[in-house]
């Protein structure tokens, strides 16, 4: 998707706050390295506990492997790796959020899953340009919560890096 | 009703529904080529199919309509609403006829002349007869027809009803008649219900039949099956878990029985669902024998259809998609490929042509071969056609190999058939075939030799198919290898006989008489050592045993080293996620019975990754290998004999004129030369080696060589055997009298250089031709040499000699045969030709070659036993670059390498200029 398309979409979203349908969007919150992220709830297929995955040799580093989810093969993505964060220590529990992109399932391995939050569209901010480029790449925007900030993950961009 | 017809109706109804929509679109976009093409193809399919089902009326309408569509497609006729109406009319007519076939099982009576006249008129570019408004009316008329018989039935009902009325009225009409009336009355009322019933039956029958046809097969969306499959897999996993729990608990036995039952049901269900997806390919072939039978009747040909591998299982979806292309192709083979019996007899072939249809699994693909022994593709006509159609220019064609030229037949609208028959020949077939095959990710390849037949090879990837796979382990991870590419399993230990040896760190293995190249899966996949293994807890580090999976890709055999081998499992191959598709080593992934995901190794990818072969053009490679084998000739008959040492010697049997036992006492000496009286003249004798003792007073086995009037005898120790084998000289020899060593029948065998002995017997057997001293050129790749010589003796002699020197040799027995090779697109680096030949002299041959064709620039060397200056001059004139005396081994070799070097420099300079 072209950048200009994205930008104009954001503009529209911001400008159209008053007349554009619902004023809130729901996000499933996840925590990675103590940072709160949000995945649009409509994109979430499933939430899994830690799973055993089959390693895929020669795959991009962020591909943790493949796993079986009710007869469908799901590609597991180590989001920490994708974001350039160090891996959790061995034995630490992780969780996964399963999303679908272009008819394929991906399991995003994150530290833990939080609540589903309903966000006011007025609290939406663009990603600060000073953010690390990898993070800027996967984030579609930021919501201001009372105590912290929620980074909205753009699933397509998160996976795009590897999907080509 | 005939199964074929039922299927035809179902298919055609679907096609017709599609055509309707597309025609409406066409009217709006009259210039949409794709749309035109697809409507045309649909018509073509209807036409083609009904031709074989014996539906002449339907066929005629479809054929004529297709004619008109053909003109639309070629752009010679503009699409106007009037014409579209006409096509609609034809489609309505087809629908009407099909409706009738569905109801009655045969075509309705009636004629379509009105419609055909109009279609023909349009096709020929004349104005349509009859106004536009008249047309629908005419089309309407037959539509009413099917109602007629029914109407008649209904009409007939009131008639028997009359007597009832009469009977009812009778008592009222008069007293005296009454007693008679009841007597008469019972009969007609009885008849009435019967005929009413009959009428009703007729009506019900009518509707029942229609629904029966559409109900016999139920088309289910593949996605539904796919989902079903997923659900069943999940169910199997859950069942497995339940069984596991059951086994671990000793109480709760009340669950045991139902669970056992569930277990069976689930297994059956799984099998059933699997079955819904798989079908033997024979299902797609069932129509073919009949089609071929009808075709041979229609065309007056004798065709034998041989089908092999019918049981090869194929995914249903794939099967559906290749069914039509296969039918098309087999029909094409029958129609275009196989010649008429008379023509075949003339070409020296059996009258009955053969079409061989073969399906098999290979390297994770399903291969379907359609092979005929007919006339093959006419390359010249294809070229001509390609130029006509503006697809390629004459210059472009000149640079193409025959194989490339043959590919044109897959282009849309390309047909070289002399006349368009109702069977085929519109150039629709092959482009549809290719489109359909490529749709499922397959490839189609073609190999054709003019006069000998064509072979089409369809290769379909296994992405959709179920395969049996071998589960292996490397560095603690499991992988699946398609069983089909696994040739054998070998257990190798670190020491002992079955050990893996290393050459500069590269593992190799002695497998029987061959050295098997090896790749280590762990290294290939860059896997770290599994921690458990490293501790030597279990697995190979303890026992030192490893397994070699001997794998075959195309003609390349190699071994994959793995740590452990498990069982084989039936797997459904699923494509890998998009982000993993770049990894060539995997062809897919799958879920095993225990629920874990496993990657499927692609032997082709592994072969490619190890740098041995490029799999992308395996087919080309295969063809090349095939051609190479063909060039290297079939097996050669060899005479094996011994001399004074243990090493067996071999000589091509064709060089040996006779075997004689020479009586040693009868040998005479003259001027230091052994002679014997042989058939009334003196024959020089040579001992194979000087140190070889002759049996004192017995006989000595002798090989007699003969060329023309001259004969000589070579005395050997013992004749061992005559064998057939490939001469593949592996070590060439400098020792006089030896060409080199080859493996014959599993033994290292010396191949002797007959020329050496001939020269020994007659100094002038090959007239010497001065000493030319040239630097030997290092030959990196096998240069291809063509030898043209009418004497089998010299051909047989030169072939091994030049092979030893690293040339790839093709021999032709006369210039005409050589020119045929040119026609077939063979390329050579140098041509060696004899001068004296019966049909055509070497001079004439050179002249012909130089005039035109792909050999125009190929250097030519003349080979002769008598070379005068005149001859040499004449040779230069006609295009020979060098003259070499027959069998002056060294000069010939130096001349060849020098000529090649000159030629290379020449063309390099030419390229730079």
Walk me through what this model shows.
The complex is a heterodimer of chains A (164) and B (913). Chain A has 164 residues and is an alpha+beta fold. Helices cover 20% and strands 43% of the residues of chain A. In chain A, strands 8-1-2-11-10-9 form a 6-stranded mixed sheet. Residues 14-20 of chain A have low confidence and may be disordered. Chain B is an alpha+beta fold and 913 residues long. Chain B has 7 domains: 3-145, Up-down Bundle (Four Helix Bundle (Hemerythrin (Met), subunit A)); 152-216; 222-280, Helix Hairpins (Orthogonal Bundle); 282-454, Heat Shock Protein 90 (2-Layer Sandwich), CATH 3.30.565.10; 465-615, SH3 type barrels; 632-761, OB fold (Dihydrolipoamide Acetyltransferase, E2P) (Beta Barrel), CATH 2.40.50.180; 783-912, Rossmann fold, CATH 3.40.50.2300. Chain B is 44% helix and 24% strand. Chain B is built from 31 helices and 35 strands. Chain B has a 6-stranded mixed sheet with strand order 10-14-15-13-12-11. Chain B has a 6-stranded mixed sheet with strand order 27-19-20-30-29-28, covered by helices on one side. In chain B, a hairpin with a 2-residue loop joins strand 4 (353-362) and strand 5 (365-372). In chain B, helix 1 (3-28) runs antiparallel to helix 4 and helix 8 runs antiparallel to helix 10 (187-216). Chain B is globular, with a radius of gyration of 39 Å. Chains A and B meet through strand 4, strand 5 and helix 4 of A and helix 11, strand 17 and strand 18 of B.
